[in-house]
Amino acid sequence: MTKDNFVQQAGMSRRTFLQVTGAGLVTATALGATGFKARAEAYGKFTWISPRGTLEVLDDYPYWAAKKAGYFDGLETDMQPGPSDGTATVKFVDVGQADMGFPSPGVFSFAIQNGMKLKSVFHMGARDTFSIAFRKGEGSNDLKKLEGKTILLGSAAWQSITDPLLAAQGVDIKKVKYVEAGWPTWGTALAGGQGDAALSWEGLRAEWIAKGLDFEYWLGVKNSKLPANTFVVRAADLEDPDKKAFLEKYLRGWAMGLEFGYQNPRAAVEAVFEQFPTLAKNLGPELGTTSILQQINVFRGDMDKRGGWGSHDMASWQGFFDEIHKIGQITNPVKAEDVCTNDLIPAANGFDKAKVKSDSDGVKLSEGFAALDVEKIKAHLFDSAVK
């Protein structure tokens, strides 16, 4: 089945997505040339793998900000883009070719359904980051109107994201069609008149504007109670005291990076732009700051009700697992507490917030960033929502 002719009715196909051999090996047909060596038993260089097939985005700003500020404190860390296959981020962790993945809840459910012994340890997406993009004038806040219509995806695996999102809004997912329009071209396909809508997410909205893709959106961050992407590791690693201690220290770096970005979003964008000059050229300060502010809203959530950065809302996760069991995305019920844990959250958040604020406030911004009015950008974050 090619990307050009992939069209299917809603309902995840195990044959389409499960490309891990019976022996537990990630196959070359599933992931292509990986460039990764087999992982050693103990952590050496700790490898985090992206769910997007690229690192040249603003989504991972906490890492780059933390790395620049020295918050990983001597840990040997590595970031890998991975293949664009939407399920690679869990497959690589499962077979030991990476140590931590960043799947959407839907892709995490794929891992659970297929017997991968993974556990969510740091919930990045406190609010639902996913949205449905429409061409201007064609959107609706009633997603039931998508029945009989076609939604474009960058990867076929993303159906595991859209199905529960739509079902939770009362959509009969059996009446929705999907077309795999390819990464990174699915947004361009929507603009070009293909399909009726496309999956999107916070942060990407601003990046699409930079590419001339001006859509209107049904926003999950405003309308959905489902969780978003999370950090997963092998469950067995949590039983190893040395690995657990490493994970706590590693996640503290991410938490500090999140706090840094919250305190000074412009400085966090500059940290990413220094890493990826092409991204800086394509986005520029204003759209870069817009993108990161969209994501900070998702990552932070309602912090007054959370146990810190990365804390799981078990009720939200349970609602997600109940929904996907109801629609047949998983065959057996899942208890959120069995696959998600907040055990590492206190240690991850055990840092000096005053120091991080001092660090972030002390950054000298470049002229383009210093000229930005952050509060004005915040006031217009959701202007592209369907009216």
TrEMBL record:
Pathway per the UniProt entry: Cofactor biosynthesis; thiamine diphosphate biosynthesis
Keywords associated with the record: Iron, Metal-binding, Pyridoxal phosphate, Thiamine biosynthesis, Transferase
Subunit structure: Homodimer.
Recorded catalytic activity of this chain's protein: N(6)-(pyridoxal phosphate)-L-lysyl-[4-amino-5-hydroxymethyl-2-methylpyrimidine phosphate synthase] + L-histidyl-[4-amino-5-hydroxymethyl-2-methylpyrimidine phosphate synthase] + 2 Fe(3+) + 4 H2O = L-lysyl-[4-amino-5-hydroxymethyl-2-methylpyrimidine phosphate synthase] + (2S)-2-amino-5-hydroxy-4-oxopentanoyl-[4-amino-5-hydroxymethyl-2-methylpyrimidine phosphate synthase] + 4-amino-2-methyl-5-(phosphooxymethyl)pyrimidine + 3-oxopropanoate + 2 Fe(2+) + 2 H(+)
Chain ranges of the SsuA/THI5-like domain: 62-266
Family: Belongs to the NMT1/THI5 family.
InterPro entries associated with the record: NMT1/THI5, SsuA/THI5, TAT_signal
Gene3D superfamilies the UniProt entry points to: Periplasmic binding protein-like II
Annotated organism of origin: Mesorhizobium opportunistum
The protein's name in its UniProt record: Thiamine pyrimidine synthase
Task of the protein: Responsible for the formation of the pyrimidine heterocycle in the thiamine biosynthesis pathway. Catalyzes the formation of hydroxymethylpyrimidine phosphate (HMP-P) from histidine and pyridoxal phosphate (PLP). The protein uses PLP and the active site histidine to form HMP-P, generating an inactive enzyme. The enzyme can only undergo a single turnover, which suggests it is a suicide enzyme.
Taxonomic placement: Bacteria, Pseudomonadati, Pseudomonadota, Alphaproteobacteria, Hyphomicrobiales
